């Protein structure tokens, strides 16, 4: 029997994975297969193979995007557990599928897994929630777990750094491939120990610091009350920094919607041809239109209420996108 983990390569996916591996609920390492990629590489189940008696655990990727692959696995006799908080659409009714889905704005996959495991690997859930920008939820869990302010801050730094590492057009953009980071994480029951002892994590901390120094010098392309659009340069550091920059800007400009537009080389999975842009959107929790609903107006768009994106925006559609974004979210 093989046990495949198909997971988002960001902090939420990796920390959810580690929680499951640390419990009795997981497969032994020698039967484990990892399927992952950069953050926007989410059509993962089409790459999973298996048959009767095999298992697949899916973490932090949209069921709607993976519907065809999921149905193929179920028909082949693979037992599937699905943990996610993104748009799912209709959930298939099948005896081999156990779906744990929560689309509320206060949920992320690490927190869903934490509930499933009754908190048996909670420190990893806290790091994952911090990485997914659910700061209030993460701090509440840390306080309930009796963590010191120093330990809580370190988990926040770890979650943010792991999450930042997943942003890039291809694996070559990243400091550490997510599958390699997952293998290194396996040996650590405590994320605080990982943060102190892992050479990969030290690379992420320093890379994050350098990239964000550059990112914070950027000026918006379009600025209107309630809506800001930034276009990043065509550079690996900018692609890595894009997600964290979007989160930081949404906090710095509370009440405004933020769009981060990154040039693409066309080398990514599902790039839709060369050129074009990758888009990250953040909107306030009380916005009349969610980030997910706005991005789904464009092909390859999706996400969740406050954070979403478009995997491929053709270059000739950039002006249309910025006009629509400003019209939709401009205050007043």
Outline the structure in words:
The chain is globular. A 6-stranded mixed beta sheet has the order 6-7-8-9-11-10, sandwiched between helices. The protein has a 5-stranded parallel beta sheet with strand order 2-1-3-4-5, with helices on both faces. The chain has helices spanning 11-21, 67-75, 109-116, 122-131, 135-144, 149-165, 178-185, 191-197, 199-215, 236-252, 291-295, 318-329; strands at residues 3-7, 32-35, 55-59, 79-84, 97-101, 222-224, 227-231, 257-263, 277-282, 301-303, 307-313. It has 332 residues and is an alpha/beta fold. The N and C termini lie far apart (58 Å). The model is unreliable at 269-273 (pLDDT under 50). The protein has 2 domains: 3-208, Alpha-Beta Complex (inorganic pyrophosphatase (n-terminal core)); 222-329, Roll (Diaminopimelate Epimerase, Chain A, domain 1), CATH 3.10.310.30. The chain contains 12 helices and 11 strands.
| Tally of contiguous helical segments | 12
The 3D shape can be described as: globular
What percent of the residues sit in helical stretches (DSSP H or I)?
25-40%
| Overall domain count | 2
Following the backbone from N to C, one meets helices and strands in this order, namely: EHEEHEEHHHHHHHEEHEEHEEH
Largest sheet: 6 strands, mixed
Instruction: Order the strands across the largest sheet as they lie in space.
Output: 6-7-8-9-11-10
Give the low-pLDDT segments: 269-273
Query: Would you report the number of β strands?
Result: 11
Radius of gyration: 19 Å
What is the CATH topology of the largest domain? inorganic pyrophosphatase (n-terminal core)
What is the CA-CA span between the terminal residues? 58 Å
């Amino acid at each position: 029997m093989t046990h495949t983990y198909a997971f988002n390569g960001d902090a939420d996916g990796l920390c959810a994975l580690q929680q499951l591996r640390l419990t009795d609920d997981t497969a032994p390492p020698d039967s484990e297969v990892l399927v992952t990629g950069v953050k926007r590489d989410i059509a993962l189940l089409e790459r999973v193979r298996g048959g009767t008696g095999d298992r697949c655990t899916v973490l932090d990727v949209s069921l709607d995007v993976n519907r065809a692959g999921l149905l193929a696995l179920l028909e082949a006799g693979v037992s599937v557990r699905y943990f996610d908080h993104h748009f799912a659409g209709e959930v298939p009714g099948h005896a081999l599928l156990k779906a744990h889905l929560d689309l509320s704005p206060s949920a992320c996959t690490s927190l869903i897994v934490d509930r499933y495991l009754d908190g048996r690997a909670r420190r990893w859930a806290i790091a994952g929630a911090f990485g997914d920008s659910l700061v209030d939820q993460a701090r509440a869990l840390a306080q309930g777990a009796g963590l010191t302010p120093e330990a809580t801050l370190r988990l926040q730094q770890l979650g943010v750094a792991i999450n930042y590492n997943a942003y890039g057009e291809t694996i070559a953009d990243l400091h550490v491939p997510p599958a390699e980071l997952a293998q290194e994480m396996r040996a650590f029951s405590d994320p605080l120990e990982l943060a102190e002892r892992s050479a990969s994590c030290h690379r992420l901390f320093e890379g994050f610091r350098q990239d964000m120094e550059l990112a914070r010098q950027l000026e918006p392309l379009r600025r209107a009350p309630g809506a800001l659009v930034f276009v990043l340069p065509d550079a690996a550091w900018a692609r890595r920094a894009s997600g964290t920059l979007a989160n930081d800007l949404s906090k710095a400009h509370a009440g405004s919607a933020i769009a981060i537009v990154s040039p693409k080389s066309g080398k990514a999975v599902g790039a839709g041809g060369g050129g074009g842009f990758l888009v990250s959107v953040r909107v306030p929790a009380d916005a009349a239109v969610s980030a997910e609903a706005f991005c789904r107006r464009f092909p390859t768009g999706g996400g969740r209420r406050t954070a979403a994106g478009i995997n491929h925006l053709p270059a000739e559609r950039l002006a249309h996108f910025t006009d629509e974004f400003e019209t939709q979210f401009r205050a007043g």
